[in-house]
Amino acid sequence: MTDVIVVGAGFAGLSAARELTKRGHEVLVLEGRDRVGGRSLTATLAGVPVDLGATFVGPTQDAVIALAAELGCATVPTHSRGKNLIRWHGKVRSYRSTIPKLSLIELLDVSRIQWRFDRLSRLIPVTDTWDAPAAQRLDQKSLEGWLRAVHAGASTRNLMAIMARVTWGCEPDDVSMLHAVRYVKAAGGLGRMLDVKGGAQQDRFPDGTQQIAQRIAAELGERVRTEAAVRRIARTGAGFTVESARGEHTAAAVVLAIAPAHRGAITFDPPLPEGYQALPAHWPQGNLSKAYAAYEKPFWRAGGCSGEALSDEGPIFITFDVSPSDDGPGILLGFADARTFDDLAPEARRERALACFTTLFGDAAAEPVDYLDHCWSAEPFAPGGPTAAVPPGAWVAHGRQLRAPVDGIFWAGTETADQWTGFLDGAVRSGQRAAAEVAAYLRS
Ligand SMILES: Cc1cc2nc3c(=O)[nH]c(=O)nc-3n(C[C@H](O)[C@H](O)[C@H](O)COP(=O)(O)OP(=O)(O)OC[C@H]3O[C@@H](n4cnc5c(N)ncnc54)[C@H](O)[C@@H]3O)c2cc1C
């Protein structure tokens, strides 16, 4: 019998467990995978740590930055010196800011839509979003439906599609306009969310993000059990019996620190109230993949390029330079569109990714010394990511059940955060918030 069982050893679950332990509670963390970190997973490419999931952090992501600093995990600035590239309508051009070089009319249209988007965000609170007078109207529309309603031009719609793919792992048609507006507001605006300098891509961890989770797990020691997928949670008198792949455990309270879609794989006895049961099916995970290629040197730097690129043709639609230094190895990170990437055979994925790198950065990109990719949709357990791709209607119908506790059952996970939801920072904040809720519950 322990005080609290935390389900999930991602940044949310581990932050909740760390906070509860600090407050003097006995905790057990049950993780279904054979590792901690969840959507943070660090691998090695050409001897360099690379993140297959979460990579970047930036200003105002204070919770994850403070946690990393406490654990001794240093960041470095993301390389951004030089020209950015854009492949648009079959041509590769260079530009120097977040918004690519388009025609004057296209640029004006992008600014107009950005202004309208920001103005809408003033109408939507990040807390109790469903109660806002404009909520119903915005939740009925998809992002694409809204863009068409305000007559956004083709280039603006293409740019917003790129944003949807990298942010939610879905197309603009698949995401509720209410979700889009709330999500961007929780990140501090479009600029803050999309920029490198001053934005969410400003810094990265040279040793990877997963080390943060691993260090928390090391602190928690035997309190963390991996390969312990939770299948059933039964209320028993004053507490709960939790059945996992590693046996039965009992606790006074439970924190579920997993993505909303994955809640559906757990049987609750007695069943959760109706709205809670319906939520997982209406908050699906998006799908995003990553491809990395390593070269002896970051050769694009010598040609004056930053390594950052955008493309309206996939499967690679955004790139970054995550090389350790000018001396090499040079490492290109490409975000891949899961729809045209994940079903390919491994050799075909490599070929397609390298073809995209070559179109952007030249023939030298065709011959990497090492290559690696990762498809989150193909994960055998708890698949999908980066975050929930919340479809039209789902916020107003199910938002209330996202994190309201159910008598001893508490909810964490980045999707439940009001600030930087969808990011590592939101995950940490959600874990800390859930820990405070549980502590108050246990006191009462
Ligand atoms: C490709 C990609 C790129 C990203 N890039 C960034 C970035 O640059 N910056 C950033 O801040 N964020 C980024 N993110 C998002 C970030 O990874 C997530 O917001 C964050 O990791 C979510 O943490 P979490 O703890 O809420 O959930 P998770 O990390 O998903 O943790 C939940 C854990 O619960 C486990 N679990 C699920 N069901 C059960 C069960 N029944 N029993 C036991 N365990 C269970 C899962 O295995 C998982 O380990 C990215 C994500 C992806 C996929």
TrEMBL record:
Which cofactors, by name?
A: FAD
The Amine oxidase domain is annotated at: 11-438
Query: What are the alphabetically sorted keywords of the record?
Result: Monooxygenase, Oxidoreductase
* InterPro entries per record: Amino_oxidase, FAD/NAD-bd_sf, Flavin_amine_oxidase, Flavin_MAO
Positions that bind substrate: 335
**GO-annotated molecular function:** monooxygenase activity
Binding site residues for FAD: 230, 415
Q: What superkingdom does the record give?
A: Bacteria
Protein family according to the UniProt entry: Belongs to the flavin monoamine oxidase family.
Name recorded for this polypeptide: Monooxygenase
